Amino acid sequence: MENKADTKKGSSSNKLFPMAHAEGPYNYAKNSNYQKTGWDLIKRLTSEEISKKLDVEHLISPGNVFRIADMGCSFGPNTFFAVQDIVEAVKSKQNQSKHMEFQVFFNDHSANDFNTLFRTLPSERSYFAAGVPGSFYGSLFPKASLHFALSSYTMHWMSKIPRQVQDQSSSVWNKGRIFYGSSKKVEEAYAAQFANDFESFLRARAEEVVPGGFMTLLIPGTQNGANLLKCTSVAISELLGSSLMDMAKEGPSYRRTRVWGSRPS
Ligand SMILES: C[S@@+](CC[C@H](N)C(=O)[O-])C[C@H]1O[C@@H](n2cnc3c(N)ncnc32)[C@H](O)[C@@H]1O
């Protein structure tokens, strides 16, 4: 079952953008080392905070089940590494006399490649796995039912493109670019959309995560006041954006002659 936010968004625009499915060479599982490096950098911090602050015994009583959700999990393998690290950090705090069980919810848009996710679940895992389709900008779980919410490299994925940046008659029109470039107004429109989305995310999690529960969010960003033109991610987005616009201008022939490598006739 999809949550309300996914259904509403799907019906108004029918545009959910999951990662490319597992068939083919360009799929996410084969192209997500960058995101893996991000998790590798913060996993120690997450484990340390769990070790210092998580009151496991208090949180899981009376059922002795610890519930984790990875929101925007895609289909692996990064989600499996992250979830395993969290399970191990929580286990290390456990009172050995009590048997604790883990349940992990893998969430992403309903169009995500959940089949591959479940087919490739680690066989040695020490948790029960479940899929939760739907947008994390809406409510996904019953009240106070989660102990740990994780979301890694997802928050830059806004719920929609701000209307005015696509409107040619608006002074905020972004001229078809995929990136805000040097326009302050376009930047502000995207920032407002992000603030809106992020608030929806936090409101939903505030309901779902138990008091004393944990959340790790890994969000790509730039420092306030940084010279954006010197940021690698900005430079890549600019370059990618201008290449995509060139391809779009050339039209379908571009796909035939260049992307798929067949010879122009
Ligand atoms: C860059 S991938 C990150 C995947 C994984 N967390 C990792 O670190 O490798 C972003 C994922 O977020 C998902 N996503 C984006 N917006 C979402 C939303 N509103 N609700 C649920 N998932 C979303 C996308 O479908 C995609 O699978």
Explain this structure:
The chain is of the alpha/beta class. It has two domains: 181 residues, Vaccinia Virus protein VP39 (Rossmann fold), CATH 3.40.50.150; 39 residues, no CATH class. It is 41% helix and 14% strand. Strands 3-2-1-4-5 form a five-stranded parallel beta sheet. Helix 6 links the parallel strand 4 and strand 5. Helix 2 packs parallel to helix 4. The relative contact order is 0.13. The N terminus and C terminus are likely disordered. Bound molecules: S-adenosylmethionine. The site of S-adenosylmethionine has 20 residues, from helix 4 and strand 2. GO terms for molecular function: methyltransferase activity. This is S-adenosylmethionine-dependent methyltransferase.
Structure in a nutshell:
It is built from 8 helices and 5 strands, in the order αααβαβαββαβαα.
**Strand arrangement, major sheet:** 3-2-1-4-5
Number of strands: 5
Report on the biggest sheet. Answer: 5 strands, parallel
Shape annotation: globular
Radius of gyration: 21 Å
Secondary-structure element pattern, one letter each: HHHEHEHEEHEHH
CATH topology of the largest domain: Rossmann fold
Question: Tally the helices: what do you get?
Answer: 8
Beta fraction: 5-15%
State the fourth-level CATH superfamily of the largest domain: Vaccinia Virus protein VP39
Mean pLDDT: 86
Domain count, please report it. 2
- Helical content stands at 40-55%
Oligomer: single chain
Structural class of the helices, strands and pairings?
alpha/beta
CATH architecture of the largest domain: 3-Layer(aba) Sandwich
